Amino acid sequence: MAVRRKEADTMEIIKGGVTAAKGFEAAAVAAQIKYQGRTDMALIYSEKPCKVAGTFTTNVVKAAPVRWDRQIVENKQKSQAVIINSGIANACTGVEGMMYCQETAKEAAKVLGIEEAGVLVGSTGVIGMQLPIDRIKAGISELAKVKKAGIESGTEAAKAIMTTDTKKKEVAVQFQIGDKTVTIGGMAKGSGMIHPNMCTMLAFITTDAVISRKALQKAMSNDVEETYNMISVDGDTSTNDTALLLANGMAGNKKIKKGTPEFEVFQEALHYVNETLAKMMAGDGEGATALFEVKVVGAKTKEQAKTLAKSVVCSNLTKAAIAGHDANWGRILCAMGYSGAKFDPEKVDLYFESTAGKLQIIKDGTAVDYSEEKATEILSQEKVTATADLKAGEAEATAWGCDLTHGYIDINADYRS
Question: Could you give the domains of the chain?
Fold first, then answer.
């Protein structure tokens, strides 16, 4: 059953993920790459070749899959398949790691009957370990045998790419372009090594839209700045961060081009998918108990608002206070102060909000007479929002993160074992 969004009559949220759009299939298998007793390889497959857009990590240390996929995007090569493994990142693996990307593509091309040059790859997990390529190849053969359309296969693929994630992350929407129904669906993984510097995880988005390559890349590149680049869990930008957007054109709509009303509709739908996945990752941060949302409103410029929001959401002291359900507003104002953005602290109003209510904490930079008990109740919910009003303009921005708990240390102290 589709659920209509109040703020956009042209778009519906539907059940599903990467297989929601026409012509896309998926599969998951247990290849024993590193994990035992669970699936750890996934396939996304399109009946028809797809145009591909992508954004990648800005980390100087780039994993082999990142370099492999960038070549495909930059060379404007069409793709019909993405092979993803969890458990081993294939990062810092030298020439051998790149050779394994090629061998993965070659095997996928052989068993799927597609062009080798367009096979995309994704890896996530421990850095520095070499992939067990024989298991990868065997896994690809199994994936090809069990791939299918439908919601279930997409969900299984979303589960297979998880590492320290505690829940699958998928979303899909539909909207109209002329008299044609267009679908965008996606899945992502991300729980640790999450920091806003494009792109902060693995995300795979599929659409059946007919769209120009330039419009596809522009839509994705523009949107990561407002979604994936506005989340942080621990301040670590990964070696493997990748977001891919594949369009197979099977919706049959009039081609979407940059600068048209249709492009704006596509961008809005893509934004919802990306933002939803981004918030899922932020809320599922390693050891997290709450999604921490920071809104900066009343700013002079968008850039000022973004800088301030990201500074607060990245503050370990603030994140620890959220974990302790402590309305330690001084940490928020402090994080804003060292962000590098100029503002007048004596004009700032600050509010905490959740399903338990909304409470003003400071007015014009100083504390108001608020109830600590009510503040603790508000901060004890699964989603907590801090809103800072600069009272200096009309610009605003939102960033997402999570609380910082002992669980984060427990997970990362022995991640390799």
Answer: 3-283 (3.60.70.12), 291-413 (3.10.20.340)
